[in-house]
Amino acid sequence: MNAETFKQIFTSEDSTDKENIDNVLSIIEDVKQNKDEALKKYTAQFDGRELDNFKVPVEKLKNSFDNLSEEEKNALVLIKKRIADYQQSIKYKDFEDREFSYVYHPLERIGIYIPGGTALYPSSVLMSAVPAAVAGVENIVAVTPTFDDENITFAALYIADVTEVYTVGGAQAVAALAYGTETIAKVDKIVGPGNRYVALAKKQVFGDVGIDMIAGPSEILLYVDNSADYTAVAYDIFAQAEHDVNARTFLMAESQDVIDGIQLEVDRLIDSQRRADVIQKSLENNHYQIIDNRKELIDVINFIAPEHVSIQHRDEQEISRDIRYAGAVFIGKYSPEAIGDYAAGPSHVLPTNQTGRFSHGLNVNDFLTSHAVINLKEGTYSNIAGAAKTIAKKEGLDAHYESLNIRMEQ
Ligand SMILES: NC(=O)c1ccc[n+]([C@@H]2O[C@H](COP(=O)([O-])OP(=O)(O)OC[C@H]3O[C@@H](n4cnc5c(N)ncnc54)[C@H](O)[C@@H]3O)[C@@H](O)[C@H]2O)c1
Ligand SMILES: [Zn+2]
């Protein structure tokens, strides 16, 4: 049992979905050319809505918030504060020295995609918009295919310091953010999760505009021993599975007894789940493995770089310290992944499908850009200009050489 065993799982997936790519490319081209007209056309085609005006007035957002129960309002406010405090604490700070500085500035205008095709995601609003607001972004534009006059997504947008909201979704919304239309001005970066069309569109527009990452179907790797609460672990597996039929769980334990114990709870409880049909389907993607060697376990985790890792084990602290690549690591009984979805603080917008090996969860620093400031004094210059001249000469760049040399002679 080692990381090699998992290669098969990851290489056999259809990451290149030719038909959908062509479809998304033609939507993007159309929006580039025909702007608002194209947005209206695709909104009618895919969402079945005739839209004259897709800008949502702030009163609509406010109404949605005002009409929530006190309990719901308080929940959104508390979650917003948790996210903001956490993001503030990890925000990069300028480095300033006599001859070098490194300074950070917020992006000017960003777009957040809030999924809304089949479910509402007020948590995603807060997880994307609050980090941007903490970074100091002035123009936070949200797009979402959410059309009801009042809904919890609008309520979250109301308290999240979002400055503009448009009811467009899918690849057409991503294209509008990337290239601009008569109604929606172009942004500098697009963030947030969405379905495959949204993900493919983000991939296509990258380069013309920044993106955060390509987040695919959700996944969790659980490492559990017999000190864990098997019923709670069964619910952790359901929580992952109910997201989407493509979601998956990697359940790992040192012995078959543990896996059997959890499986018993899964079998006992599954029929009583409201989303049992989705759960049942996504459980087919699960992989249950016995790993009794700690080094192999860590190799597998680092290879998969799971979106979520949950360790519920006697040695959970020690094991967690060796993990290098993961979207987020949840340690122990009181850090279930579900608390991370809503309220722990770090964003739930996380890299999936091994992309955690080179990218990270959305955070405040994704909304900052930075540059170096070089302000050398004469002494430093004289110490290093000789080396620079030598290389400039070797490269045959004479003007570079002279630019350096002339200052040495003075
Ligand atoms: N990783 C995360 O943090 C996270 C959080 C929340 C949601 N999600 C994911 O976001 C996704 C939400 O998907 P959704 O579909 O509900 O909403 P969505 O808003 O992502 O997509 C809806 C849009 O898809 C477009 N579309 C639908 N069918 C199309 C077709 N045949 N061709 C072209 N475009 C088409 C439509 O324009 C529609 O507006 C889910 O996969 C969910 O798991 C992820
Ligand atoms: Zn979840």
Annotation keywords:
single chain; 410 residues; alpha/beta; Rossmann fold; 3 domains; 5-stranded parallel β-sheet; 16 helices; 13 strands; 48% helix; 14% strand; globular; binds nicotinamide-adenine-dinucleotide; binds zinc ion
Strand order of the largest sheet: 5-4-3-6-7
Structural class: alpha/beta
Question: Might you state the CATH topology name of the largest domain?
Answer: Rossmann fold
Query: Would you count the extended β strands for me?
Result: 13
The CATH architecture of the largest domain is 3-Layer(aba) Sandwich
Strand content: 5-15%
Basic shape: globular
Task: Give an account of the 3D structure.
- The longest helix is centred in the first third of the chain and has 30 residues, at 18-47.
- Strands 5-4-3-6-7 form a five-stranded parallel sheet, sandwiched between helices. Strands 10-9-8-11-12 form a five-stranded parallel sheet. A three-stranded antiparallel sheet has the order 1-2-13, with no helix packed on it.
- The termini are far apart.
- The chain has helices spanning 3-11, 18-47, 58-66, 70-90, 122-135, 152-159, 170-179, 196-205, 230-241, 256-269, 276-283, 294-304, 316-321, 337-342, 378-395, 398-409; strands at residues 95-96, 100-106, 109-113, 139-143, 164-166, 189-191, 210-211, 219-224, 248-253, 287-290, 308-312, 328-331, 368-374.
- The chain has three domains: 18-211, Rossmann fold, CATH 3.40.50; 217-358, 3-Layer(aba) Sandwich (Rossmann fold), CATH 3.40.50; 376-409, no CATH class.
- The chain is an alpha/beta fold and 410 residues long.
- The protein is 48% helix and 14% strand.
- Helix 3 (58-66) packs across helix 6, helix 5 runs parallel beside helix 6 and helix 9 (230-241) packs across helix 11.
- Residues 218, 239, 243, 341 line the site of zinc ion (ZN).
- Zn(2+) binds at residues 240, 243, 341, 400.
- This is Histidinol dehydrogenase.
- The active site is at residues 307-308.
- Belongs to the histidinol dehydrogenase family.
- Its cofactor is Zn(2+).
